[in-house]
Amino acid sequence: EVQLVESGGGLVQPGGSLRLACAASGFTFSSAGMNWVRQAPGKGLEWLSYVSSGASNIIYADSVKGRFTISRDNAKNSLYLQMNSLRAEDTAVYYCARGGGDSWGQGTLVTVSS
Amino acid sequence: DVVMTQSPLSLPVTLGQPASISCRSSQSLVASDGNTYLHWFQQRPGQSPRRLIYRVSNRDSGVPDRFSGSGSGTDFTLKISRVEAEDVGVYYCMQGTLWPRTFGQGTKLEIK
Hints:
The structure holds 2 protein chains of 2 kinds. In chain A, the strands form 2 sheets. In chain A, strands 2, 4, 5, 6, 9, 10 and 11 form a 7-stranded mixed beta sheet that branches. In chain A, strands 1-3-8-7 form a 4-stranded antiparallel beta sheet, with no helix packed on it. Chain A has no helices and 11 strands. Chain A is mainly beta. Chain B is globular, with a radius of gyration of 13 Å. Chain B has no helices and 11 strands. Helices cover 0% and strands 48% of the residues of chain B. In chain B, the strands form 2 sheets. In chain B, strands 2, 4, 5, 6, 9, 10 and 11 form a 7-stranded mixed beta sheet that branches.
């Protein structure tokens, strides 16, 4: 069974940093492109970033480019999102999702507030 | 960026009746490989999104056959043949053809 489990969310002050992780199991992680998607409270889904299976191709949404960094460790079956210079508008549930969105994690809440 | 426009945004439906959601893209979603990467997701209250339909009309594993997808180019539709109580939630279309990936605003389905 495919499982994606996010962690690392929490309360952070504006301007601060946070690193999210997504632990994958039940499939060959090293063969899968992975995404981060977020959902602000009461709002819709916003795609943030993609990393290809071997990390040779990385894409960001303009809203996070230059502030967020996606990475992966195929030896650890893990996906990461380093988030810097956080703003109030980054408050959201952050999901990792496999490839074309066929599997999603349960999400981790990030709250940016003083 | 490709803008995905869904309608309606709110969809009250009587149990057992059909429902239809439209999704229009600002550009053609036909990729260079000939495939059209338009997917549909369901998000039930308090849950993570779940993909229902991939590449316009292919149902994901475990998705009831009352869900169907159709369309081409820039115009797509998700249909539910007979709405059940468990179908309550928000439905999103998403294009996976062009970067950045973009979602529709979401359509909230409720039981009338």
